[in-house]
Design brief:
Layout lengths: L1 E7 L12 H16 L3 E5 L8 H15 L3 E8 L3 H11 L6 E6 L4 H7 L2 H13 L2 E4 L2 H7 L6 E3 L19 E5 L8 H8 L7 E5 L9 H5 L3 E5 L6 H6 L3 E4 L8 H9 L3 E4 L2 H6 L6 E4 L4 H10 L2 H14 L5 H14 L9
Parallel strand pairs: 1-2, 1-3, 3-4, 4-5, 5-6, 7-8, 7-10, 8-9, 10-11, 11-12
Helix pairs in contact: 1-14, 2-3, 3-5, 7-12, 10-13
Length: 347
């Protein structure tokens, strides 16, 4: 009998480069299970890897029915389709000697639950309360759902510790943004601040352009280098070539790029959003500003000098321990296979 049946979104077979946050995190989990030598079975829940949505659900549920008898624990990892799949997982968990877990990606679970009504509300209540272990990305969500499910645990956005780190070189005012290039990410504020600073500052932007007002020429004319999209395995190297990550977004959950910045020893300037505030310690691992506030962003950028940078960079590298995928996967396995609820906090 295998230890685990894991269900979640795998990489696209037709377009491997099309990877969202949930795919990255689930792929990371599978890699950690392989490294740890865990005996597991896999069900891919990414519907585009099947012959249409209807075929996907029939195939996924068919695989669940067949494989449920061969495992000790069934774990569903999902952003949205948990509302369809989780009841079947819970039903399979009623077999003697079986347990279940739901790892909910993203930060909107409480809003989805609290704003629901009627049948949907009852469905969500059933899912969140009846699954044996509920894993959520944000600590405040763990607190909110704690009354609904006492086996609610923290499983943050994680990354594998890279071999590369920022070299031990002097602070050179090299700031970088990596993400979707659109106004909601604070791109206009970055451009505005760049116009207020001299040539001794370097600003680089990497990512896929999501708004037609932006282009490589647009950024070049404003003193910003645009590097385009980069592969996930290249992000750490790009970060290590800079001094500070910029992420002045208007909306974020648990930004993976901040965790990747920590992994190579980069402090962060981001915005006072709930998820970000759980990751960035103000004045310790980075600085936080109000979304859309150019003056505060300017003050944060110009606050950095060599001493401030080196102090925060060291703290950021230490902070990464909380988001090390090897550490968090080991804790996840301890909870679902050994029932060690004392490790739910993740500290």
């Amino acid at each position: 009998m295998a230890d685990l049946l894991v269900m979640g979104p795998c990489e696209s077979r037709s377009n491997p480069g099309n990877t969202g946050g949930a795919v990255v995190l689930f792929t990371n989990l599978l890699q950690e299970l392989d490294r740890a030598g865990v005996d597991y079975l896999l069900i891919d829940t990414r519907k585009e890897n099947y012959r249409g949505t209807l075929h996907a659900y029939f195939s996924i549920l068919g695989q669940l029915f067949i494989r449920q008898f061969r495992v000790r624990h069934i774990s569903l990892h999902s952003s949205r389709d948990y509302q369809v799949l989780a009841p079947f997982v819970i039903a399979a968990g009623l077999l003697p000697g079986r347990s279940t877990s739901l790892r909910k990606f993203g930060g909107e679970a409480w809003d989805t639950y609290s704003n629901a009504s009627g049948m949907k509300k009852r469905l969500l209540h059933f899912i969140f309360s009846r699954v044996d272990f509920l894993f959520l990305e944000m600590r405040h969500l763990v607190q909110r759902f704690g009354d609904l499910n006492p086996r609610c645990c923290w499983f943050p956005n994680v990354r594998r510790r890279p071999a590369i780190r920022r070299p031990d070189r002097p602070f050179a005012r090299r700031f970088v943004f990596i993400g979707h290039v659109m106004p909601e990410k604070g791109i206009d504020e970055i451009v505005a601040v760049r116009q207020m600073l001299g040539d001794d500052y370097q600003f680089d932007i990497y990512g896929i352009i999501r708004d037609e007002r932006y282009s490589e020429d647009y950024f070049r004319e404003r003193g910003i280098a645009f590097g385009g999209a980069i592969a996930p395995d290249a992000v750490a190297g790009v970060l290590a070539d800079h001094d500070v990550l910029l992420l002045p977004s208007y909306k974020e959950g648990y930004p993976g790029v901040i965790i990747e910045a920590y992994s190579v020893g980069l402090p962060v300037i981001s915005t006072q959003l709930r998820g970000v505030q759980e990751i960035v310690e103000e004045g310790v691992t980075g600085l936080l500003v109000a979304p859309g506030n150019v003056e505060q962003l300017y003050a944060a950028i110009t606050r950095f000098d060599a001493e401030e940078h080196d102090r925060m960079a060291a703290a950021a590298l230490r902070k990464f321990d909380l988001f090390d995928s090897q550490r968090q996967t080991a804790r996840f396995l301890d909870i679902v296979l050994a029932g060690n609820r004392s490790r739910c906090s993740g500290d």
